[in-house]
């Protein structure tokens, strides 16, 4: 558990993806899921924290990829939690398939993931249709989280995907999904996403995070790091 100022945050490492629980009014907001096969592991980790599955009131998806939305549909069925996602995530979530719009950030990543796809051939997950109960945002949102009892904002941070969003708390903690990473750095990626739609848009999102007050970056892949390391290179 990490107490960041007045914010209570639990970090849950399930498989590839680091998920985060933020205390909210009446329970918790979960940032991202992992692949569908990790749902039971998620339940066990919650139990170890003394948290009931019914305590999950909101699920915020930083983007629609299968390692972030994998067991989202099952979680919603179990808890009736409300989903928060970007407008551009609506269609791929409904289809249950990652959009084929990203490319490797460099040649070494291309080689690594050519080998990876020999074992992980499809980037699909159980589809989920957002309803009127859910929150579909168009861009930055400064009010939604506050209404849920969380002192923070949602920022649209595209570049990895067009639907990427981040949570920025008032103490500077930034939960960025795959907008930045601390993963496979031996391939020369730095903190760049290993797959991107547009690298310049990634850098623009980093600039926004810093300008809005991000101090510590909590990525979905890798350990937290200082926002001062988000520099274009």
Describe, in plain words, how this protein is organized in 3D.
With about 230 residues, this protein is α/β, with parallel strands linked by helices. It has a single domain (about 1-100, about 135-230), classed as Ribonuclease Z/Hydroxyacylglutathione hydrolase-like (Metallo-beta-lactamase, Chain A, 4-Layer Sandwich), CATH 3.60.15.10. Helix content is about 25%, strand content about 25%. The strands form 3 sheets. It has a 7-stranded mixed β-sheet. A hairpin with an 8-residue loop joins strand 9 (about 150-155) and strand 10 (about 165-170). The longest helix is centred in the last third of the chain and has 13 residues, at about 200-210. The radius of gyration is 16 Å and the shape is globular. The N and C termini lie far apart (about 35 Å). The model has no long low-confidence stretch (mean pLDDT about 90).
Quick structural summary:
The protein has 7 helices and 14 strands. With 233 residues, it is of the alpha/beta class.
Per-chain topology:
Blueprint: E1 2-4, E2 7-13, E3 18-24, E4 27-31, H1 39-48, E5 56-60, H2 66-69, H3 72-79, E6 82-86, H4 90-95, E7 103-104, H5 107-116, E8 135-137, H6 144-147, E9 152-156, E10 165-169, E11 173-177, E12 195-196, H7 199-211, E13 216-219, E14 225-226
Parallel strand pairs: 4-5, 5-6, 6-8, 11-13
Antiparallel strand pairs: 1-2, 2-3, 3-4, 7-12, 9-10, 10-11, 13-14
């Amino acid at each position: 558990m990490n107490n960041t100022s007045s914010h209570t945050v639990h970090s849950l490492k399930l498989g590839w993806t680091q998920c985060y629980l933020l205390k909210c009014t009446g329970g918790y907001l979960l940032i991202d899921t992992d692949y569908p096969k990790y749902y039971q592991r998620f339940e066990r980790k919650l139990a170890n924290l003394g948290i009931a599955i019914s305590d999950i009131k909101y699920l915020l998806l930083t983007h629609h990829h299968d390692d972030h939305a994998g067991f989202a549909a099952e979680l919603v069925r179990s808890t009736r939690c409300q989903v928060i996602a970007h407008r551009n995530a609506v269609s791929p979530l409904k289809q249950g398939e990652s959009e084929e719009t990203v490319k490797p950030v460099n040649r070494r990543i291309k080689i690594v993931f050519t080998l990876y796809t020999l074992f992980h051939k499809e980037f699909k997950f159980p589809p989920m249709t957002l309803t009127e109960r859910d929150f579909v945002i168009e861009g930055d949102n400064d009010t939604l989280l506050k209404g849920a009892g969380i002192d923070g904002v949602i920022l649209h941070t595209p570049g990895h995907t067009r639907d990427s969003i981040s949570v920025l708390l008032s103490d500077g903690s930034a939960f960025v999904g795959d907008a930045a990473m601390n993963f496979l750095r031996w391939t020369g990626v730095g903190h760049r996403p290993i797959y991107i739609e547009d690298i310049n848009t990634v850098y623009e999102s980093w600039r926004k995070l810093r300008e809005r007050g991000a101090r510590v970056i909590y990525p979905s892949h890798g350990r937290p790091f200082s926002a001062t390391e988000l520099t274009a290179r």
